[in-house]
Each structure stands twice: as structure tokens, then as C-alpha cells.
Write a structure and sequence with these properties.
alpha+beta, 5-stranded antiparallel sheet, 11 helices, about 45% helix
Length: about 400
């Protein structure tokens, strides 16, 4: 199943396209850190451990090399395979099911269950969890297992590297102090540059333990519930809707099969995914399109409550705009979503706000209907100062006026 799946339009089929994804600043920097910490660990091994504990040195060397190879393998395969994309122009087999699915104008097809469009990748991603700049692609159906192997093994390897670096620093400092005390040359044990490298290695390894370890916790927590980060957000909004309107039918997450079955959906040493990425096993009593129907209802509510603003002040899309005041500069939205450039006269459909910022989609002033909007929606954050508080009308009020 996996071998035939890799040959279709869901992944980068050419060797060149995969190399472009892998040889990118994100993957190069990430793998560079792993290689650097591996050499630091080997240096500690050959400079200290091999002379102190010869029996342990062989075990340490095997463990260090094996773990480093496994981390690099998992990291590289996460970027090499990619998440798996929904085929361009995809449609469900039964035309009646199209009413339960979202349509992607960019990919010119319907979004399969559990799939979402990634603006950075430019495609709809199967079982999309999030876009990771460190592997230069999304985490999804095809590479989720490799990514999980990485976020589990990397903190373990870096924690081990922290221990080796800390021991080497302790060793050279205590031995050097003893030599200096008895009048010997303490520089024979180490050089100043070695100490700098050890401190840098210790800091990098500890930083990876905190950052990747936290990400690993979130990934394991989501996998045990068979719920991606996006699906967790959808279910949170679904619960908020039912808290505000008790008449709505309770929403049951359809993909939670129990933690053992959920774990088997992703975790495997080989990294091969289960299924085809389009059809997923369901919880008893749940339907195939329960979650997609909830998404459509949330989109409809979001469209009704959106507010249209006309831009009165241009904004270039810079991340930290100095000219819009200290509060706007110091309180940007803390999210991975992009900024958008707006010009005077643009009409923007605003759906969210964060202090001095608005999030919305640019609409053409003369064609503000969804049907006539651009094929690639321009969405993002822009300063609140770009609009006037008196110059707006909601879509719902606009339809009533017409």
C-alpha cells in the first residue's frame, strides 16, 4: 500500500523536488545540530571515557552512534517523504458526499476528511497536524511516524549529550585545579577552545531537550487521542458552540478508538503509514463526515459574524511595524500566521482580533462576494490602525439591507 502510494500525486515524485525540500535552511540547521552534538559526544568518549571505564566505553560508543543514526534517519525521512497531499482535483466517489466536504479553490478539489490546506506548502495535506519549518514541510499522514520517532529520540539523545558534556567539564575543571594546586601545568588536560565547544554543546543539547521535548509531549498527547493540533482546535470551538447554544447536538470526536488503537495508527519502527490517508476507522456510532460537517457549520458561523472594513491607511506587511505606534509594535499576535499588506480602499473581511491587530481576508472592493474573490485567498494579520472604527458593516447586515 505504502509503496504504491508513494508513486502518486500525493508526494514529490522526482528526486530533485525531494532534494530541494531536504536541502533547505531548516533541515540543514536541524541536522547540523544533531551532527555537531554527535561529534561532541564522541569527543568526550575518546578523550575521557575510554581511559576511565574501558568496559563501559564500548557500550557508550555503540549507544551514541546508534542513537545518532536513528535521530538523523527519522529527521531526514520526515522531510524526505513529506506529509502526503490530497490529489489535485480530488472528489469523493459518491457525488452526494460533496455537500459534506469543504472545497479548496487553490487545489481545485474537495478536502478529504482530516485534510487541510497549507498555505506554505500550497497543497491540501492529508491528516495535517502542523507545518514545521525545521523539516520544511507539514507533519501529516505520511511522515507522522517518522516525526514522532524524531521528537522522542532527539530529547533522549540530547539529554545523554548533556550528561557527557557536563561530566567532561567537571572532569577537566577538578583535575586542572588539582594540577594547578601542586604546581603542574593544568593546560595539558584541555584547551580553552575545547571548553567553549563543550559549553556550546551543553547549551544546544539542553535547549533541544526543552523545545523538542515539549513538542514530543504534545505529539504523544495528541496521538494517544488520535487528534491532530488542528482537530483539537476544531473540537474546542465545537464545545464552545454547544456551551453557548445547549440545543445543539453533542459533538463526539469520531476518530478516538482508544489509546492502544490510536497509537497503532501512527507508531511503527518502519514508519509506514496505515491505510490510504482518505478513509479512516471510526468510533462506533460516528459517521464519516461528522467532523467535516462541524467544520462547515463553524465556517458558516464565522462568515456570518465577519465584519467588513475599508482600509484607510496602508500597511506593507512588515512583521514589527514601527510607524503604527509603540503598542502595535510591542504587542504583535503570537502565532505562525502571516501578515498581509493592505492598501487604501481595500475591503477586508475581519474574523479575529488581538489587541492592536486584526486578522482577515482581503476582498476586492468591487467584488466582495465569495464567488468572485481571488482563487488564492489573501489572509493574515494587519494593524488595527489601518481601519476606521466607523467605517464597517457586517455581512449579515449587508444582506439585510439588500
Amino acid at each position: 500500500m505504502t509503496r504504491s502510494f508513494l508513486l502518486n500525486d500525493s508526494v514529490c515524485k522526482t528526486f530533485t523536488s525531494k532534494c530541494k525540500r531536504l536541502f533547505h535552511p531548516g533541515p540543514i540547521f536541524g541536522m547540523g545540530i544533531v551532527i555537531f552534538l554527535t561529534f561532541v559526544g564522541l569527543w568526550v568518549h575518546f578523550s575521557t571515557l575510554i581511559y576511565l571505564w574501558k568496559s563501559f566505553a564500548c557500550v557508550n560508543l555503540f549507544f551514541c552512534c546508534s542513537l545518532s543514526v536513528f535521530i538523523l534517519r527519522s529527521y531526514a525521512l520526515s522531510a524526505w517523504y513529506g506529509p502526503g497531499f490530497v490529489m489535485l482535483g480530488w472528489k469523493p466517489k459518491d457525488p452526494k458526499d460533496q455537500a459534506y466536504l469543504q472545497y479548496c479553490r487553490v487545489c481545485d478539489g474537495y478536502k478529504a476528511p482530516r485534510s487541510h490546506h497549507c498555505k506554505t506548502c500550497g497543497r491540501c495535506v492529508l491528516k495535517m497536524d502542523h507545518h514545521c519549518p525545521w523539516i520544511n514541510t507539514c507533519v501529516g499522514y505520511l511522515n507522522h511516524s517518522h516525526f514522532l520517532n524524531f521528537v522522542i529520540s532527539a530529547p533522549i539523545g540530547c539529554l545523554y549529550c548533556c550528561t557527557l558534556c557536563a561530566y567532561r567539564i567537571y572532569y577537566v575543571i577538578t583535575r586542572s585545579f588539582a594540577l594547578f594546586r601542586f604546581g603542574y601545568d593544568y593546560k595539558v588536560l584541555f584547551s580553552f577552545y575545547e571548553l567553549i565547544i563543550l559549553v556550546i554543546g551543553l547549551g544546544l543539547a539542553f535547549g533541544v531537550v526543552l523545545a523538542v521535548g515539549g513538542l514530543g509531549y504534545c505529539q504523544i498527547r495528541g496521538i494517544l487521542r488520535n487528534k491532530t493540533a488542528i482537530e483539537d482546535w476544531i473540537m474546542t470551538k465545537a464545545q464552545d458552540r454547544r456551551d453557548s447554544d445547549p440545543t445543539l447536538k453533542p459533538m463526539v470526536y469520531p476518530y478516538d478508538l482508544g489509546w492502544k488503537n490510536n497509537l497503532q495508527q501512527v507508531l511503527s519502527f518502519s514508519g509506514n503509514p496505515i491505510g490510504d490517508g482518505y478513509v479512516w476507522p471510526l468510533r462506533p456510532g460516528c459517521g464519516t463526515y461528522d467532523l467535516t460537517i462541524e467544520q462547515l457549520q463553524q465556517k458558516n458561523l464565522k462568515s456570518k459574524t465577519a465584519v467588513l472594513f475599508r482600509i484607510g491607511r496602508p500597511y506593507s506587511g512588515i512583521i514589527l511595524p514601527v510607524t503604527f505606534g509603540c503598542r502595535t509594535f510591542c504587542c504583535p499576535p503570537c502565532s505562525g500566521e502571516s501578515r498581509i499588506a493592505v492598501a487604501i480602499g481595500d475591503v477586508v473581511s475581519v474574523t479575529r482580533a488581538h489587541k492592536r491587530w486584526y486578522y482577515g481576508q482581503i476582498l476586492s472592493p468591487s467584488h466582495s462576494d465569495d464567488v468572485n474573490s481571488p482563487k488564492v485567498p489573501v489572509k493574515g494579520w494587519f494593524p488595527r490602525a489601518c481601519v476606521s472604527a466607523t467605517n464597517y458593516t457586517s455581512r449579515e447586515d449587508k444582506h439585510k439591507q439588500n
